[in-house]
C-alpha cells in the first residue's frame, strides 16, 4: 500500500494544489493529513496564498481518499467546511507487520508517546520539521510542513512506498530524509 502524508497546510492554496497534484501523480491509495489544515494559527505568519475556504473546496474533492487528524489550529468551524472527519486527535493505520499511529503532535509527541511497540511508527506533524528516524521505543516520522517549514527546511511532504518512509521536498520531490520500516 502506498500512502502520502501532508501536514500543516495552514490554509495555503498553492501548497494544497501542489500536494493534490503530487497525490494524483503518486499512485497513493490514501492522503493522510496530519492537522492544521485551514487556519494559520496565532504564532504563524500568513502562508503564501492564504485562502482557507478554497483549500477546503480543493480537499473536499478528495474526501473519500483522505484520512485526517485534528491539529491544534483546527476547530469545529473548520469541520463545517470539510466533507471528511478532522476532529479525531489520532488515528491508526494497520499494516501487515506494524501500525502507523497518526496524530498532529501537540498532544502525543516523541517526548510523550502512546503505548507503541518498537516496530510501530509514530507519525506526526506540528513541529514543521521533517523527521525519519529510530526513536527510543518506536520509529518516528514527521513529513514537515507543506506551507510554513521551519528549521531551514524546504516545504515537504511524506510518502510510504514499498516499506520505505521518505520526506520529500514539495517543489522538486528531492528526498531529504528516509527510513525503511519493514525488516
Give an account of the 3D structure.
Belongs to the metallophosphoesterase superfamily. YfcE family. Its cofactor is a divalent metal cation. This is Phosphoesterase. GO terms for molecular function: hydrolase activity; metal ion binding. The protein is an alpha/beta fold. The protein has a single domain (3-169), classed as Metallo-dependent phosphatases (Purple Acid Phosphatase, chain A, domain 2). The chain has three helices and eleven strands; from the N terminus they run βαβαβαββββββββ. The strands form two sheets. It has a six-stranded mixed β-sheet, with helices on one face. The chain has a five-stranded mixed β-sheet with strand order 4-5-6-8-7, with no helix packed on it. Strand 2, helix 2 and strand 3 (66-68) form a beta-alpha-beta unit. Helix 1 (13-26) packs parallel to helix 2. The protein starts with a strand and ends with a strand. 43% of the residues are buried.
Short recap of the structure:
By secondary structure, this protein is an alpha/beta fold. Helix content is 16%, strand content 27%.
Can you count the beta strands? 11
Task: Look at the structure and give the CATH class.
Answer: Alpha Beta
Q: Quick one: CATH superfamily?
A: Metallo-dependent phosphatases
Beta-strand residue percentage: 25-35%
Alpha carbon gap, first and last residue: 16 Å
**Helical fraction:** 10-25%
Amino acid at each position: 500500500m502506498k500512502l502520502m502524508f501532508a501536514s500543516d497546510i495552514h490554509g495555503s492554496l498553492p501548497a494544497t494544489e501542489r500536494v493534490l497534484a503530487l497525490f494524483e501523480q503518486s499512485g497513493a491509495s490514501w492522503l493522510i493529513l496530519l492537522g492544521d489544515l485551514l487556519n494559520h494559527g496565532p504564532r504563524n505568519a500568513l502562508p503564501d496564498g492564504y485562502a482557507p475556504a478554497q483549500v477546503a473546496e480543493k480537499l473536499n474533492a478528495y474526501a473519500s481518499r483522505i484520512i485526517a487528524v485534528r491539529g491544534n489550529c483546527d476547530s469545529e468551524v473548520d469541520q463545517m467546511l470539510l466533507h471528511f472527519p478532522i476532529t479525531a486527535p489520532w488515528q491508526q493505520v494497520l499494516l501487515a507487520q506494524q501500525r502507523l499511529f497518526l496524530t498532529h503532535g501537540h498532544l502525543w509527541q516523541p517526548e510523550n508517546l502512546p503505548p507503541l511497540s518498537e516496530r510501530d511508527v509514530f507519525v506526526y506533524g506540528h513541529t514543521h520539521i521533517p523527521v525519519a528516524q529510530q526513536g527510543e521505543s518506536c520509529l518516528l516520522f514527521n513529513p514537515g510542513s507543506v506551507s510554513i517549514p521551519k528549521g531551514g527546511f524546504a516545504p515537504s511532504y511524506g510518502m510510504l512506498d514499498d516499506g520505505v518512509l521518505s520526506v520529500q521536498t514539495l517543489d522538486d520531490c528531492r528526498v531529504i530524509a528516509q527510513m525503511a520500516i519493514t525488516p
